[in-house]
Amino acid sequence: MRKDVLASFEAAKGFMPLDEGLALHAAATQAAVGLGLPLLEVGTYCGRSTLLLAEAAAAAGTVVVTVDHHRGSEEQQPGWEYHDPELVDPATGRMDTLPYFRRTLYAAGLEDHVIAVVGRSPQVAKVWRQPLGLVFIDGGHTDEHASGDYEGWSPLLAEGGLLVIHDVFPDPADGGQAPYRVYRRAMESGAFTEVSVTGSLRVLRRGSADSEAAGAGAARGAGSSLRVQGDGSGL
Ligand SMILES: C[S@@+](CC[C@H](N)C(=O)[O-])C[C@H]1O[C@@H](n2cnc3c(N)ncnc32)[C@H](O)[C@@H]1O
Protein backbone atom coordinates (compact mmCIF):
# COMPACT_ATOMS: atom_id res chain seq x y z
CA MET A 1 0.00 0.00 0.00
CA ARG A 2 1.23 3.52 -0.76
CA LYS A 3 2.61 5.36 2.27
CA ASP A 4 0.44 8.45 1.70
CA VAL A 5 -2.73 6.30 1.70
CA LEU A 6 -1.64 4.72 4.96
CA ALA A 7 -1.01 8.20 6.39
CA SER A 8 -4.49 9.32 5.25
CA PHE A 9 -6.01 6.21 6.86
CA GLU A 10 -4.30 7.00 10.16
CA ALA A 11 -5.34 10.66 9.99
CA ALA A 12 -9.02 9.95 9.19
CA LYS A 13 -11.71 9.83 11.85
CA GLY A 14 -12.91 6.28 12.39
CA PHE A 15 -12.73 3.17 14.48
CA MET A 16 -10.59 0.68 12.60
CA PRO A 17 -7.16 -0.15 14.05
CA LEU A 18 -4.18 -0.56 11.74
CA ASP A 19 -3.90 -4.37 11.89
CA GLU A 20 -7.55 -4.76 10.88
CA GLY A 21 -7.07 -2.13 8.17
CA LEU A 22 -4.17 -4.04 6.68
CA ALA A 23 -6.23 -7.26 6.73
CA LEU A 24 -9.11 -5.44 5.00
CA HIS A 25 -6.72 -4.08 2.36
CA ALA A 26 -5.26 -7.55 1.77
CA ALA A 27 -8.75 -9.05 1.34
CA ALA A 28 -9.78 -6.23 -0.98
CA THR A 29 -6.66 -6.72 -3.10
CA GLN A 30 -7.30 -10.44 -3.35
CA ALA A 31 -10.93 -9.94 -4.38
CA ALA A 32 -10.24 -7.07 -6.77
CA VAL A 33 -7.37 -8.79 -8.57
CA GLY A 34 -9.00 -12.22 -8.55
CA LEU A 35 -12.49 -11.26 -9.70
CA GLY A 36 -12.21 -7.74 -11.14
CA LEU A 37 -15.64 -6.91 -9.75
CA PRO A 38 -16.72 -3.86 -7.69
CA LEU A 39 -16.09 -3.91 -3.93
CA LEU A 40 -19.04 -2.92 -1.72
CA GLU A 41 -18.84 -1.26 1.70
CA VAL A 42 -21.74 -0.66 4.09
CA GLY A 43 -20.73 2.04 6.58
CA THR A 44 -18.63 4.79 4.99
CA TYR A 45 -18.55 7.10 8.03
CA CYS A 46 -15.60 9.49 7.36
CA GLY A 47 -13.90 7.24 4.80
CA ARG A 48 -11.20 5.64 6.93
CA SER A 49 -11.86 2.09 5.71
CA THR A 50 -13.05 3.28 2.28
CA LEU A 51 -9.52 4.50 1.54
CA LEU A 52 -8.11 1.01 1.89
CA LEU A 53 -10.75 -0.53 -0.35
CA ALA A 54 -10.23 2.26 -2.89
CA GLU A 55 -6.47 1.76 -2.97
CA ALA A 56 -6.97 -1.95 -3.69
CA ALA A 57 -9.69 -1.29 -6.27
CA ALA A 58 -7.60 1.34 -8.08
CA ALA A 59 -4.61 -1.00 -8.35
CA ALA A 60 -6.84 -3.68 -9.92
CA GLY A 61 -8.81 -1.36 -12.21
CA THR A 62 -12.15 -1.68 -10.46
CA VAL A 63 -14.16 0.55 -8.09
CA VAL A 64 -15.56 0.73 -4.58
CA VAL A 65 -19.23 1.37 -3.94
CA THR A 66 -19.71 2.69 -0.42
CA VAL A 67 -23.14 3.09 1.16
CA ASP A 68 -24.10 5.27 4.15
CA HIS A 69 -26.97 7.59 5.06
CA HIS A 70 -24.27 9.67 6.83
CA ARG A 71 -26.53 10.31 9.83
CA GLY A 72 -24.53 8.02 12.12
CA SER A 73 -25.38 4.76 13.86
CA GLU A 74 -27.25 4.54 17.15
CA GLU A 75 -24.07 4.58 19.24
CA GLN A 76 -22.82 7.72 17.43
CA GLN A 77 -25.78 9.90 18.40
CA PRO A 78 -25.49 12.64 21.08
CA GLY A 79 -25.13 11.19 24.56
CA TRP A 80 -23.73 7.88 23.33
CA GLU A 81 -20.23 6.47 23.65
CA TYR A 82 -19.07 7.06 20.07
CA HIS A 83 -20.56 10.51 19.53
CA ASP A 84 -18.24 13.10 17.98
CA PRO A 85 -19.75 16.62 18.33
CA GLU A 86 -17.54 17.85 15.48
CA LEU A 87 -19.64 15.75 13.10
CA VAL A 88 -22.91 17.53 13.87
CA ASP A 89 -24.17 19.81 11.08
CA PRO A 90 -25.06 23.13 12.80
CA ALA A 91 -27.71 23.83 10.14
CA THR A 92 -29.73 20.70 10.94
CA GLY A 93 -28.44 19.65 14.35
CA ARG A 94 -27.94 16.16 12.96
CA MET A 95 -24.86 14.06 12.32
CA ASP A 96 -23.42 14.52 8.85
CA THR A 97 -20.24 12.62 8.01
CA LEU A 98 -20.47 13.19 4.26
CA PRO A 99 -18.27 16.35 4.13
CA TYR A 100 -15.56 14.62 6.19
CA PHE A 101 -15.72 11.57 3.95
CA ARG A 102 -15.26 13.73 0.85
CA ARG A 103 -12.24 15.49 2.35
CA THR A 104 -10.65 12.16 3.32
CA LEU A 105 -11.02 10.78 -0.18
CA TYR A 106 -9.87 14.00 -1.87
CA ALA A 107 -6.74 14.24 0.31
CA ALA A 108 -5.76 10.70 -0.63
CA GLY A 109 -6.33 11.30 -4.37
CA LEU A 110 -8.77 8.39 -4.57
CA GLU A 111 -12.01 10.16 -5.59
CA ASP A 112 -12.04 8.59 -9.05
CA HIS A 113 -12.14 5.07 -7.65
CA VAL A 114 -15.15 5.42 -5.35
CA ILE A 115 -18.89 5.62 -5.99
CA ALA A 116 -20.51 7.03 -2.85
CA VAL A 117 -24.17 6.19 -2.37
CA VAL A 118 -26.05 8.22 0.24
CA GLY A 119 -28.93 6.10 1.46
CA ARG A 120 -30.14 3.34 3.73
CA SER A 121 -28.38 0.08 3.10
CA PRO A 122 -31.47 -2.17 2.60
CA GLN A 123 -33.04 0.33 0.19
CA VAL A 124 -29.86 0.57 -1.88
CA ALA A 125 -29.38 -3.21 -1.87
CA LYS A 126 -32.90 -3.65 -3.26
CA VAL A 127 -32.06 -1.69 -6.40
CA TRP A 128 -28.49 -2.93 -6.85
CA ARG A 129 -28.13 -5.86 -9.26
CA GLN A 130 -24.43 -6.00 -10.25
CA PRO A 131 -22.35 -8.89 -8.89
CA LEU A 132 -19.75 -7.94 -6.31
CA GLY A 133 -16.23 -9.17 -5.57
CA LEU A 134 -16.31 -8.20 -1.89
CA VAL A 135 -18.95 -7.12 0.63
CA PHE A 136 -17.67 -5.33 3.74
CA ILE A 137 -20.30 -5.05 6.49
CA ASP A 138 -19.57 -2.20 8.94
CA GLY A 139 -22.88 -0.32 9.13
CA GLY A 140 -25.42 -0.28 11.96
CA HIS A 141 -24.59 -2.67 14.78
CA THR A 142 -28.10 -3.59 15.91
CA ASP A 143 -29.51 -6.99 14.90
CA GLU A 144 -31.98 -5.27 12.59
CA HIS A 145 -29.26 -3.38 10.69
CA ALA A 146 -26.51 -6.00 10.68
CA SER A 147 -28.85 -8.77 9.50
CA GLY A 148 -30.44 -6.40 6.95
CA ASP A 149 -26.99 -5.72 5.51
CA TYR A 150 -26.20 -9.43 5.32
CA GLU A 151 -29.54 -10.32 3.73
CA GLY A 152 -29.41 -7.42 1.30
CA TRP A 153 -25.85 -7.66 0.06
CA SER A 154 -24.39 -11.15 0.52
CA PRO A 155 -26.58 -12.71 -2.23
CA LEU A 156 -24.89 -10.32 -4.67
CA LEU A 157 -21.43 -11.72 -3.92
CA ALA A 158 -19.96 -13.64 -6.84
CA GLU A 159 -18.72 -17.17 -6.30
CA GLY A 160 -15.24 -16.87 -4.77
CA GLY A 161 -16.08 -13.36 -3.51
CA LEU A 162 -15.21 -12.26 0.01
CA LEU A 163 -17.59 -11.35 2.83
CA VAL A 164 -15.81 -9.20 5.42
CA ILE A 165 -17.51 -8.47 8.75
CA HIS A 166 -16.21 -5.93 11.25
CA ASP A 167 -16.70 -5.89 15.04
CA VAL A 168 -17.20 -9.62 15.45
CA PHE A 169 -16.92 -10.26 19.18
CA PRO A 170 -17.62 -13.84 20.30
CA ASP A 171 -17.39 -12.71 23.95
CA PRO A 172 -20.18 -10.24 24.87
CA ALA A 173 -17.75 -8.62 27.33
CA ASP A 174 -15.79 -7.31 24.31
CA GLY A 175 -18.65 -5.70 22.39
CA GLY A 176 -22.11 -5.94 20.81
CA GLN A 177 -23.22 -9.30 19.44
CA ALA A 178 -25.12 -8.43 16.26
CA PRO A 179 -22.09 -8.68 13.90
CA TYR A 180 -21.09 -11.94 15.63
CA ARG A 181 -24.58 -13.34 15.01
CA VAL A 182 -24.30 -12.39 11.34
CA TYR A 183 -20.92 -14.10 11.17
CA ARG A 184 -22.41 -17.27 12.75
CA ARG A 185 -25.31 -17.16 10.35
CA ALA A 186 -23.01 -16.88 7.34
CA MET A 187 -20.89 -19.82 8.53
CA GLU A 188 -23.95 -21.96 9.31
CA SER A 189 -25.44 -21.27 5.88
CA GLY A 190 -22.73 -23.49 4.36
CA ALA A 191 -22.12 -20.81 1.74
CA PHE A 192 -18.89 -19.49 3.25
CA THR A 193 -15.55 -20.70 4.54
CA GLU A 194 -13.39 -18.66 6.86
CA VAL A 195 -10.26 -17.16 5.33
CA SER A 196 -8.81 -15.05 8.15
CA VAL A 197 -9.38 -13.54 11.59
CA THR A 198 -7.61 -10.28 12.53
CA GLY A 199 -8.83 -8.69 15.74
CA SER A 200 -12.57 -8.28 15.23
CA LEU A 201 -12.35 -8.52 11.43
CA ARG A 202 -13.48 -11.78 9.82
CA VAL A 203 -12.93 -12.60 6.16
CA LEU A 204 -15.08 -15.35 4.63
CA ARG A 205 -15.09 -16.70 1.09
CA ARG A 206 -18.27 -17.55 -0.75
CA GLY A 207 -18.22 -21.08 -2.13
CA SER A 208 -20.08 -22.67 -4.99
CA ALA A 209 -23.86 -22.99 -5.26
CA ASP A 210 -23.49 -26.71 -4.38
CA SER A 211 -21.86 -26.06 -1.01
CA GLU A 212 -24.48 -23.40 -0.35
CA ALA A 213 -27.42 -25.70 -1.08
CA ALA A 214 -25.88 -28.43 1.09
CA GLY A 215 -25.36 -25.98 3.96
CA ALA A 216 -28.85 -24.54 3.68
CA GLY A 217 -30.33 -28.04 3.61
CA ALA A 218 -28.42 -29.00 6.74
CA ALA A 219 -29.47 -25.79 8.45
CA ARG A 220 -33.14 -26.38 7.55
CA GLY A 221 -32.83 -29.88 8.95
CA ALA A 222 -31.60 -28.32 12.18
CA GLY A 223 -34.69 -26.10 12.32
CA SER A 224 -32.98 -22.88 11.21
CA SER A 225 -34.84 -20.15 9.34
CA LEU A 226 -31.91 -19.44 7.00
CA ARG A 227 -32.79 -18.46 3.45
CA VAL A 228 -31.25 -20.10 0.42
CA GLN A 229 -29.18 -17.33 -1.16
CA GLY A 230 -28.61 -16.48 -4.80
CA ASP A 231 -32.18 -17.06 -5.95
CA GLY A 232 -32.17 -13.76 -7.85
CA SER A 233 -34.61 -12.11 -5.46
CA GLY A 234 -31.88 -10.04 -3.83
CA LEU A 235 -32.73 -11.54 -0.45
C1 LIG B 1 -19.00 2.03 12.43
S1 LIG B 1 -19.37 3.31 11.30
C2 LIG B 1 -18.42 2.86 9.89
C3 LIG B 1 -16.95 3.02 10.11
C4 LIG B 1 -16.08 2.95 8.86
N1 LIG B 1 -16.29 1.71 8.12
C5 LIG B 1 -14.64 3.10 9.25
O1 LIG B 1 -13.94 2.08 9.36
O2 LIG B 1 -14.20 4.22 9.48
C6 LIG B 1 -21.02 2.89 10.83
C7 LIG B 1 -21.63 3.76 9.74
O3 LIG B 1 -22.77 3.07 9.26
C8 LIG B 1 -23.79 4.00 8.94
N2 LIG B 1 -25.07 3.30 8.98
C9 LIG B 1 -25.66 2.73 10.06
N3 LIG B 1 -26.81 2.13 9.70
C10 LIG B 1 -26.93 2.32 8.35
C11 LIG B 1 -27.91 1.93 7.38
N4 LIG B 1 -28.99 1.20 7.72
N5 LIG B 1 -27.74 2.31 6.11
C12 LIG B 1 -26.65 3.04 5.74
N6 LIG B 1 -25.69 3.43 6.62
C13 LIG B 1 -25.83 3.07 7.90
C14 LIG B 1 -23.63 5.11 9.95
O4 LIG B 1 -24.16 6.32 9.46
C15 LIG B 1 -22.11 5.14 10.19
O5 LIG B 1 -21.50 6.15 9.42
List ligands, each type once: S-adenosylmethionine
Largest sheet: 7 strands, mixed
Low-confidence stretches: 219-235
Shape: globular
Structural class: alpha/beta
CATH architecture: 3-Layer(aba) Sandwich
CATH hierarchy class name = Alpha Beta
Tally of separate domains: 1
Written overview of the protein:
One of its GO terms (biological process) is DIM/DIP cell wall layer assembly. InterPro entries: SAM-dependent_MTases_sf. It is a single chain. With 235 residues, this protein is an alpha/beta fold. The protein has a single domain, classed as Rossmann fold. It has a seven-stranded mixed beta sheet with strand order 5-2-1-6-7-9-8, with helices on both faces. Strands 3-4 form a two-stranded antiparallel ribbon. The longest helix has 18 residues. The radius of gyration is 17 Å and the shape is globular. The C terminus is likely disordered. S-adenosylmethionine binds next to α3 and β2.
Short description:
The protein is an alpha/beta fold and 235 residues long. The protein has one domain: 3-Layer(aba) Sandwich (Rossmann fold), CATH 3.40.50. The strands form two sheets. The protein has a seven-stranded mixed β-sheet, with helices on both faces. It has a two-stranded antiparallel sheet with strand order 3-4.
Element layout with pairings:
Layout: H1 3-11, H2 18-35, E1 39-42, H3 48-60, E2 64-68, E3 88-89, E4 94-95, H4 98-107, E5 114-118, H5 121-127, E6 132-137, H6 143-153, E7 157-165, H7 178-188, E8 192-198, E9 201-206, H8 209-221
Parallel strand pairs: 1-2, 1-6, 2-5, 6-7
Antiparallel strand pairs: 3-4, 7-9, 8-9
Helix pairs in contact: 1-3, 2-3, 5-6, 6-7
The site of S-adenosylmethionine has 21 residues, from helix 3 and strand 2.
